[in-house]
Amino acid sequence: MVAAPGENLRVNGDRLWDMLMEMAKIGPGIAGGNNRQTLTDADGEGRHLFKTWCEAEGMTVGVDKMGTMFATRPGTDPDALPVYIGSHLDTQPTGGKFDGVLGVLGGLEVVRTMNDLGIRTKHPVVVTNWTNEEGARFAPAMLASGVFAGVHSIDYAYARKDPEGKAFGDELKRIGWVGDEEVGTRKMHAYFEYHIEQGPILEAEDKQIGVVTHCQGLWWLEFTLTGREAHTGSTPMNMRVNAGLAMSRIFEMVQEVAMSEQPGAVGGVGQVFFSPNSRNVLPGKVVFTVDIRTPSQEKLDRMRARIETRAAEICEKLGVGCSVEAVGHFDPVTFDPVLVGRVREAAEKLGYSHRDIISGAGHDACWAAKVAPATMIFCPCVGGLSHNEAEDISKEWAAAGADVLFHAVLETAEIVE
Ligand SMILES: [Zn+2]
């Protein structure tokens, strides 16, 4: 008979916090955060610590050929697929102590609490540490989960190079974490990821839990505008072919398009190259990337089409050449409504304030969602700050999200009396 977990069941928030602080000692940053980039010696050390903790809880740790770690707590039904809880232990070069780490160690704390309480579940529970989520050392981000979900081939992943020219495959071997499992062969009953929000909404609204319903899709559209280099003083206004002016009109237009698709759409430009980039020369060439994101596939496609059409019109009027190349893309992800509902119900039952939220950043869960019912839980972070050594959360926030994770996982893994 399946029993619902009682609302008085909680994880051990102090123990979770101690694990977070212990892990943060490995690969310290220069300003109180962490530099535990993927496939460095510090990453290897962090992996060993995590493995030791998992084995102390009676879990078996499997490793796949991408170095992703899977720590399994068995279930009672040998035919039942596992419930996965995953995130990442790697960090940015100037990363925080919680981005990713909270989800992996939060998962381990769920298992520790199950062990404390002698809870048995029908489905196994597997805590996962995905390799190279950050993509800071080896682009792209979410590399191992991408191979797992069939988005990238393992050969592509192994050939990725860091800025020093070292290959991912060689570095994985060097730190001793090439496992024997084929990547992506595991089947999942469900996938949960607990992560810091990396944005300001939950804290600003004083909410303890973010119930993540979607992950935004994105297009990166790289524009190359061609004008005519000319002297800024001696070229009359009516004789200019001004690629810079076309660029500024396109920026304005991108803003208009994004504003007309509210709520739930963003668009902007973060990078521009002016050529020759001289004070007294009108640019002959301007290259910039428009970044548009929204959780709606329909909006995403419409925004791209509108931006490309209107940019062509703007450039034509000014006599400026315009070409566009799509240099980055993710489809929007809709998380599994049943799992999302369980997260919401768990927050409700435990008396935690919550709101539905959309993930603005990419996560391993976005790839896992391609191969399993998946969802995420967000924890607030101070000032919305992340990918920054000053990234911070409170012990109470960390524990509240782990409590919700615990209950949602138990509902899904099914308690056995
Ligand atoms: Zn992360």
Automatic annotation (TrEMBL):
GO terms for molecular function: hydrolase activity, acting on carbon-nitrogen (but not peptide) bonds, in linear amidines; metal ion binding. Pfam families: M20_dimer, Peptidase_M20. Binds 2 Zn(2+) ions per subunit. Keywords: Hydrolase, Metal-binding, Zinc. It comes from the Bacteria. Zn(2+) 1 binds at H88, D99, H195. Zn(2+) 2 binds at D99, E134, H387. InterPro entries: Amidase_Cbmase (IPR010158), Bact_exopeptidase_dim_dom (IPR036264), Peptidase_M20 (IPR002933), Peptidase_M20_dimer (IPR011650). Its cofactor is Zn(2+). The keyword Nucleus does not apply. Residues 216-315 form the Peptidase M20 dimerisation domain. Belongs to the peptidase M20 family. This is N-carbamoyl-L-amino-acid hydrolase. The lineage of its organism: Bacteria, Pseudomonadati, Pseudomonadota, Alphaproteobacteria, Hyphomicrobiales.
